[in-house]
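About this split. The held-out portion is used to measure sequence recovery: a designer receives only the structure tokens and must propose an amino acid at every position. Recovery is the fraction of positions where the proposal matches the reference. Here is one held-out target exactly as it appears in the evaluation file.
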């Protein structure tokens, strides 16, 4: 899930404020896929810091952060990237960012056909 977030983690009413990227991996009914998702986010965090010098914050989701949260054996995790690093992140991935619509406030990452994501991840 990719979405815009405000400084306090809520969806911003005023889009002129500082925004960032949030990638969320939730625990699924299949424990293995949930563990793989968490592992993926940890690898993304390490790659962002090591290769691209982008700071990101990987934190577990507390129960009650969302209205429809449910009990899991392992916590869900969210990866935050600040607004300042967001354009750099997209550029390094060879992607274009679309402005979010007011209706769903989703941040769409569009793949650049000239540069494949797999090639970037192997840096």
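Reference sequence for scoring:
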């Amino acid at each position: 899930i990719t979405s815009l977030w405000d400084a306090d983690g809520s969806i911003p009413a005023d889009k002129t404020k500082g925004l960032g990227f949030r990638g969320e991996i939730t625990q699924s009914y299949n424990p293995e896929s949930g563990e793989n998702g968490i592992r993926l986010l940890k690898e993304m965090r390490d790659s962002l810091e090591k290769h691209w010098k982008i700071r990101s914050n990987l934190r577990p989701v507390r129960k009650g952060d969302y209205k429809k949260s449910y009990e899991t054996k392992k916590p869900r995790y969210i990866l935050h990237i600040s607004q300042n690093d967001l354009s750099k992140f997209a550029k390094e991935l060879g992607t274009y960012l679309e402005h979010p619509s007011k209706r769903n406030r989703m941040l769409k990452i569009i793949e650049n056909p000239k540069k494949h994501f797999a090639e970037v991840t192997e840096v």
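Annotator remark: The longest strand covers residues 20-25.
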